[in-house]
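Journal club prep, notes for RB
We'll compare a predicted complex against what the paper describes. Inputs for the coenzyme A case:
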Amino acid sequence: MTHAAITGWGKCLPPSVLTNQDLATFLPTDDEWITTRTGMKERRISHVPGIELAITAARRAIACAGLTGADIDLVIYGSCSNDETVPNSASGVQQRIGATHAAAFDVNTACTSFMYGLSIGTSMIRSGVVKNALVIGVELISQYMDWDNRNVAVLFGDGAAAVVLQSCDEETGVLAEKLQCYADSRQILRVRGMGTMYANLGAEYGQTRWDFDGQEIFRKAVQGMSEASLDVMRRVGVTMDDIALVVPHQANLRIIEAVAKRAGATADKVFLTVQKYGNMSSATAPVALVEAVETGRVAPGSLVLMPAFGGGLTLSSHLLRWGPRVTPLEVSDAELTPCTTTALEIVNHIRAQKKSGEATAGCFASLSFAEGRGS
Ligand SMILES: CC(C)(COP(=O)(O)OP(=O)(O)OC[C@H]1O[C@@H](n2cnc3c(N)ncnc32)[C@H](O)[C@@H]1OP(=O)(O)O)[C@@H](O)C(=O)NCCC(=O)NCCS
């Protein structure tokens, strides 16, 4: 049987750091609340479009695999904050990396987009449609954040990561996964303002209001990620004792701790980035995976469990067997353009831009939360 090994990995975090203290300069919040309720201390804010983060991460992953862009025959761009819709973002990456003969498409399942993309890429390699796939998780949440809403503004950051999947005979890569969606709860995490429906109501692009029932999402995330993880382990016939590392989606330290407890993982088995990067939506899990490999936490041939959760409400858990190599074959010199502004300056600029369009924001009142719930 053909398998899809992860042979390349790379991440791209924008350099500007937004601290809890920075957030407290314009929101009624403080470091103590954010740290104790979420585990977050910092997050990154991008000075470049999301696709630039994606391309830099992609180039690093392709070099790591010892390939060139021309070797890639599938580009999957996992994101819910695309720079544009037509043309798709994956084709933009394809063009810039020179993957001339590749297929390219975008996947949006919110925070789980990379994980769903990993399943699709693996399946297309197993079925023989492609041989070398590039799967990206990237997010530019800062542009769509409702920066006046402390319930959500403290939780998210920007970033990207990518992996290269290659066809192989050894049983490595994704061994099994569970994919699911709690569609009946889709209204509890909704970004009003992103999509044509809102344009028809008169919203300016980038103007957003978030419907966000944090406590209910918290409960569903714990339930979904732990049940999916237990299901995958049961199907493969392994227990938590066999798993070397859990690399979960990082929406809240307390969610991660609750999932780990229910799935039977001790704290030393769980890889954390939430304190440094917050929740980068679809970039979160792959950034954590790449960082786990880069810091020596992933041993050759070991089992890695990756539970994830996001808007939709989508959920997933993937069980991976890492391949024999944990070091890059080559190192890319890809870098972002230098950043000359602080994260707080970038955020304040976005806030000022949104305020200037505030005259049109009355459209949000015309679509009440109750109406939104029905659709
Ligand atoms: C959002 C979340 C951190 C809130 O934590 P919580 O312990 O549930 O906190 P609560 O919602 O009960 O709020 C407690 C109080 O803190 C206040 N609060 C909310 N955000 C705050 C902030 N940034 N700073 C200070 N106070 C804040 C609330 O207004 C509330 O005040 P009240 O009691 O006077 O009404 C938590 O529910 C969570 O992580 N949810 C899931 C995250 C998520 O959805 N991620 C995206 C999908 S993967």
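Talking point for the session: The chain has one domain: 3-374.
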